[in-house]
Amino acid sequence: MTDMTVIKAAARKAAFARRKAAFDAHPPGAAGRLSEVLAGHRGVPLSGYMPIRTEIDPLAAMAEASAYGPVGVPVIQAAGQPLKFSRWTPDGILKNGPFGAKIPEVDDYFDPEILIVPLVAFDAQGGRLGYGGGFYDRTLEGLRAKRPTLAIGFAFDAQESDGLPLEPTDQPLDMVVTESRVLTFPA
Fold it and tell me: In whole angstroms, what is the distance from residue 30 CA to residue 176 CA?
């Protein structure tokens, strides 16, 4: 293991503990602020995610956005590969996907222009610490090579951290939405 691997593992462990405490303390409904942000992008193809464990829940905002344009969820293809995004609807039939996240039963892939990104921790400059698989970093790099792609981190305030261990391959967020605020980061 490299030093960076050890450092990132320690940062994730601390961030998971903060996220769990925030999840346990906050009632559902934080997606209202996310809905407000997405309202400025009506009809733009977007991807959310199916929340697992203690992730903040974007489903209400995704359901609202689905009335205006395509909404998808990530589908892991294989280790080391970028994500694909399959069309999701609030009443669509889901099946179990990798890592316990639900995915649409029928694949209907498209390229989103906005990604609501789950995370373990974020910093005040738009840095993101994910789960360590590099899926979103690879995916954002590929999508951004084709067209402007907006990456919106969705998290609890408690997930903010100073001095995240970031590497050159880590893709920055354009914005972070929490239960109490919206942070934007200039390119």
Answer: 13
Structure tokens at 90: 């609030």
* Residues composing the chain: 187
Q: Residue 66 corresponds to which tokens in the numbers above?
A: 């689905």
What is the CB-side half-sphere exposure of residue 24 using CA atoms within 13 A?
A: 6
Q: Which DSSP helix (H) or strand (E) runs through 129?
A: strand 128-129
pTM for this one?
Answer: 0.89
Residue 32 CB burial class (10 angstroms; 0-12, 13-18, ≥19): exposed
DSSP, collapsed to helix, strand or coil, labels residue 32 as helix
User: Please, what are the domains in the chain?
Assistant: 3-184 (3.40.50.10420)
Is 43:69 a contact under the CB 8 Å cutoff? yes
pLDDT at 186: 81
Query: Going by C-beta distance under 8 Å and a sequence separation of 6 or more, which residues neighbour residue 158?
Result: 18, 19, 21, 22
